[in-house]
Design goal:
This protein is α+β, with helices and mostly antiparallel strands. It has three domains: 12-289, ABC transporter involved in vitamin B12 uptake, BtuC (Orthogonal Bundle); 299-355, Winged helix-like DNA-binding domain superfamily/Winged helix DNA-binding domain (Arc Repressor Mutant, subunit A); 433-506, SH3 type barrels. It has helices spanning 2-12, 16-39, 42-67, 73-97, 102-122, 124-127, 134-139, 147-166, 168-176, 178-183, 188-229, 233-258, 262-280, 286-295, 299-311, 319-325, 330-342, 357-378, 384-394, 400-409, 426-431, 492-496; strands spanning 316-318, 346-349, 352-355, 434-436, 444-451, 465-468, 478-482, 487-490, 498-505.
């Protein structure tokens, strides 16, 4: 056993540090990435990664001048963090005090700060002092990680994960609803800068694997994959970390087998995982969405079925006739019938469809909307031959406020342009409590509960019991009969000024 372990150490010992570093960095990048994705800060993370070059060089020069130390990772880590915070601060400053939007400000600031780092490196008297492997800084080199760097990265990981655990609630609230978070006393700006500092630390860590160009993929891709798989932040964080570790290990294995760059292989693997999640995610994947759309019954077809049954004699019709009336695939129509039956709106008996009481209410609301739209279109410049087809399209826009607006705009008409009766919304009248007297038709009995201001006040008092008589003058005059038998003739405005509580229908 000891000999086997020794042999393994001799053959594969050089992989231990890279695997540990990659695992730690993958976890911390994936965890922080969840908050970055939820806040829509992916472009800002890219800006921090690029601006880090100037911070690394500044930190390197400071450690060299102040302490005479070369290639000190701690100094570069602090410099990169400060550069990231400076980038975010400058973006916020430009966005807040100018007309420039955030995406434009990010593009300006991160390219400017990145160019500053390149400018410093290009200066002869500075470039000669800086001994940084720029190539591996850009593309990454996880194999070259030393034990000292491993310990420092372990400390960074511990710090960032501790911050996420300790400040999980503020991070969660500010990610989903910063306004509410501010209203309950959470310092939103401080939390944002704290997340920025953590992102900067994570970016520096990720550079060891993928380099400054691809490090954003380590932060964003696992989190985006987890976002497709889960609905809760805590589960998203765990899932993202697992996917990040899997992506690193598989990518690192591919890199060793093919002799390619580890960073590129890791990012390609994580991207492949994302596309698998994008296609096969059980709820938000493309396949699930296709299946859901395939199985979904369009509301328009369901409403057409209800209308077909209602317009038939005795509210009953054979299924075969419905299939002939509706110009839609038969499979969709049959699914609609099954759905309506499950919803309790239809009874299916021996190949015939019958409306239930709830189904009758819904069918009347549909027909009401259709005939109101026909009445409205008849008063516009729409050709007579197109009124029915256009109303058929508009009737499925079952927004109650829109239908009520049409009804009021048209003066609560009783019949459509063809002379057919426009049904009342009886279900709404019976369940809405107090309604406008103008909604009621002949035979209803109600009690006045409120009199609203009107140019011609109505001669009734709050508490009076009234009955509705027949509408006259093409439905523009309401007849109201008081308890004493007096008949009142009300116009549209007067009928709309009275709020009543419906008691019964005579």
């Amino acid at each position: 056993m000891l000999e086997a372990l020794t042999q393994f150490q001799l053959e594969y010992g050089y992989l231990i540090n890279p695997l540990i570093v990659g695992t730690l960095v993958s976890i911390v990048c994936s965890v922080v990435g969840c908050f970055i994705v939820l806040r829509g800060m992916s472009f800002l993370a890219d800006a921090i990664a690029h601006s880090m070059l100037a911070g690394v060089i500044a930190g390197y020069l400071f450690m060299l001048v102040a302490f005479g130390q070369e290639s000190h990772l701690g100094g570069m880590l602090i410099g990169a963090t400060l550069a990231g915070i400076l980038t975010v601060a400058m973006v916020g400053l430009v966005t807040r005090f100018s007309r420039i939007k955030q995406d434009t400000a990010i593009g300006i600031m991160y390219t400017g700060i990145f160019a500053m780092g390149s400018f410093l490196l290009s200066l002869e008297y500075i470039g000669g002092l800086v001994r940084i492997d720029i190539y591996h800084f850009i593309v990454g080199d996880v194999i070259a990680v030393t034990s000292g760097e491993l310990w420092l990265l372990a400390i960074v990981t511990s710090i960032v994960l501790s911050v996420v655990i300790l400040f999980y609630r503020p991070l969660q609230l500010t990610s989903f609803d910063p306004i509410m978070a501010a209203s309950i006393g959470i310092p939103v700006l401080a939390v944002e800068y704290m997340l920025t500092a953590c992102t900067s630390l994570v970016v520096v860590s990720g550079v060891q694997i993928a380099g400054v160009i691809l490090v954003v993929a380590l932060i964003i891709t696992p989190a985006a994959s987890a976002y497709l798989l889960t609905d809760r932040l805590d589960r998203m964080i765990v899932t993202s970390a697992i996917l990040g570790v899997i992506g690193f290990w598989v990518g690192f294995l591919i890199a060793n087998l093919t002799g390619s760059a580890a960073g590129a292989a890791v990012v390609i693997t994580m991207t492949a995982i994302f596309f698998v999640c994008l296609v096969f995610a059980p709820r938000y994947g493309l396949l699930a969405d296709w299946i859901r759309k395939r199985n979904t019954v369009p509301q328009e077809i369901m409403e057409d079925v209800l209308g077909s049954v209602m317009r038939s004699p005795n509210d009953s019709i054979a299924i075969e006739k419905v299939l002939g009336y509706i110009n839609k695939p038969n499979a969709k129509i049959r699914k609609s019938i099954d759905m309506l039956e499950r919803q309790g709106l239809l009874d299916v008996d021996d190949g015939k469809l019958n409306l239930t009481s709830d189904g009758l209410f819904e069918a009347k609301r549909l027909v009401r909307a259709h005939r109101l739209w026909e009445t409205y279109l008849d008063q516009t410049s729409v050709p007579k031959e197109e009124i029915h087809s256009r109303a058929h399209q508009l009737e499925h826009l079952q927004d109650q406020s829109m239908v009520d607006y049409l009804d009021d705009k048209l003066g609560h008409p009783i019949t459509d342009p063809h002379g057919s009766e426009i049904p009342m919304d009886e279900k709404r009248i019976s369940t809405a409590g107090n309604v406008l007297l103008a909604w009621l038709r002949e035979g209803y009995r109600a009690q006045i509960v409120e009199k609203r201001p009107c140019e011609s006040p109505v001669e009734v008092e709050v508490g009076d019991i009234v009955s509705m008589g027949e509408r006259s003058e093409d439905g523009t005059i309401w007849t109201v009969i008081t308890a004493s038998g007096k008949q009142l003739k009300l116009d549209h405005d007067q009928a709309d000024s009275l709020l009543v509580a419906v008691q019964e229908r005579e």
